[in-house]
Structures
1.
Amino acid sequence: MTETSAPSVKRDFLGSAHVFASAVREVLEDRLLREVAGRQLGFSQLKLLIFVAHTNARTVGDVAAFLGVSKPAASQAVDRLVRRKWLRRTEGEADRRFAKLSLTDSGHRLLKSYEAAKARKLERIFRGFSAADLQHTADLLDRVSAQIVNHSAKPEEVCLQCGVYFRERCLLRTLSGHNCFYHTYRARRQGNGS
C-alpha cells in the first residue's frame, strides 16, 4: 500500500480539510463580518453583495443560479438587502425579476470595510508562510476540490462560487473541464439573448 493510499492518510486529510474550512468560515470570515456589520448581515448575504459587485450578473435569476436557490428565495434575499439599503434595483423595470441589481454607496462601503479588515487579518495570519508554500497549498486544495466534484453524480449541477473567493476563474472549468451550474445557466441565458 502506498503512502497516499492508506485509509488513515485520506481520513486525516479530509479531517484536516474540514477543520481548515471551519476555521476559515467560522473563525475568520464570520468574525470579520461581525466586526464590520454587527449582526445585520449574514455570510450568505455578504456573498450575494460580493457577487453583484464583482460580476456582470445583475438579475434575481443570476442570483438564484449563483446561490443554487429558487428565484423566489433569491428574490427574498435581494429584498432583504434592498430594505437594508445595501443593494438597489434599477428603477423603471416593470418586472422585478429582470430589474438590474447594483450596490448602494452603503453596500460599497460595507464591502470595502470587510475587504480591508480581511486583508489586515490575512497579513497577520500568513506572515510566517512563504508565497511558494501558500501557492502550493492553494493548488493542492484546488486539485482535490476538482476531484471531489468530478466524482459526484452530476458535476455540472455544482457551483463552488469561485468568484467570491479571491479568484477570477472558475475552478471547475479550469481543472476539470466542466462548467459549474452557474456558468451553464449564464451560457444558456446569453444564448437566448436574455
2.
Amino acid sequence: MSGERPPPFQSFIREGPGWETVTNDLQYANPYLQVFLSKIQTPSRPAGALWTIVHRKAAAVVAPMTPDGRLLLIRQERIPIRAALWEFPAGQIDSPTEADDAAIRATACRELQEEAGYELGPAGELIPMGCFYSSPGFTDEHSYLFLARGVIPSPHGSSHDEDESIQECRAFTLPELRRMIAENEVRDANTLSTFARMFVLGFI
C-alpha cells in the first residue's frame, strides 16, 4: 500500500505548507486501528521522517453529572496495564465523517447509557468541551469531551459490549473526585483531561 493515503480514521488531518505524506505502508489493521510505517515531510525535515503511526477512530468522552452535582465514574478492566481504572464513559465514533457533530453527540449519549446505565433527564443538557489528543507522538487518536448535566438512571439500564469488563458505576462528590485525582486513584487520560476542561471552563 506504499504511496496510498490512509483510509478515513484520520480525515481531520490537513497537510499544510511544508507537510506532505511521501509514503504510507500498512503494517497491521483490525476494526479498531491501523498501523502505518510512513515517510512524512515536515517544515523542519524536508527530506522526510520515517514514522510509525497508529490511526484510530475518534472517540467521545462524557462526564455524567447528576442533578445533585455528583459525577459518575465507571470502573473498567484495562488489559494492557493489568488493572481496573476509574473512568468517565467513552467510546469510539462509528461515523466515517469525522466532523459529523450529530454522530459525535450520539456516541456520547450511547456510551452514557451503555457503560453507566444513565441518560439525560428532562432538564438535562449535553455540553461540548472541545477535544484533545491522547498521545500525538505515535497516534492520531483524539477524543471529544462532553459534560452531561442532569443525568438520571436509564430505564434500559446498562448494556456493555461483549469485549468490555465494567465492574461498577458509582457517583462521587466533587471533593471525593478531587481527592482521588490527587492521590493517583484516577489515572485515565480521558478522565483527567475531561476533569481539567470542566475546571478551566468553570463547570466545577
3.
Amino acid sequence: MKRIRIGNNINVSISIYNNGMAYDLTGKTVKTYLISPVSKSEVVPSINSNNISFIFSGSDQKICGKYNVAVEILSGSNKNTVDSIDGFKLVDRTCKIGGENGELNIESLVVSLEI
C-alpha cells in the first residue's frame, strides 16, 4: 500500500474487471466512496469505459491513516454490485512515504487500483 504525505493532491484510478475482462460501465449508475478510518464520503468520479478516476484534493484531507475505495454499480436489472479495495495510507511526515515495492519517494501521486 502506498504511503502518501497528507496534503498532496492524489489522482486515484480504478480499473474494473469481471472474470478477467474489462467491465464496461457505460449506461450503469456508479457510486464511488472514499472510506477513511472515521468516515465514508461519496466522491464524483470521471468514468471512461472500465476506468473510474477522481482526485482526492489535499485540501480535503483531514486525518492520516488507511483509506479504502468502494465502488457500487447499479446495472439495468437493478442488481447492485459492491466491491472495495485498499487504496492508500496518508502519513504525517515525508520520511514515512513510500510503498511496499521499495519506493523511497513518490514523484507522481497516482494510485492505480484494480477490482
4.
Amino acid sequence: MGPKVRREVTGLTVNKVVSVPRKRRRALRAYFHQIEQNPSAFTKQKQKAIGYAAWIFSYHKAEGSNYLSVAHSIPDPEQ
C-alpha cells in the first residue's frame, strides 16, 4: 500500500494515528445532534448513546466529551 492509502483494521483507521473513520464520525455527529434536538425521544437508546460517546472519547477526547454530556442529558427510561 502506498503512503496515501487509508489503512483500516477492525473499523478503525490506523495510518499515523489510530482514529475513527470520517464517515462514521459524521454519522455519529448527526446522531448526537438529533439527540440534542429532542433528548426525550431517545430514552430507550440512552445506554447505546453513552457507549458510542465513550468509544469516540477513547480516540477523540474533545469530541467524545461533548457527546458524553449530550448522552447523559437523555432522561432515564421509565421502569
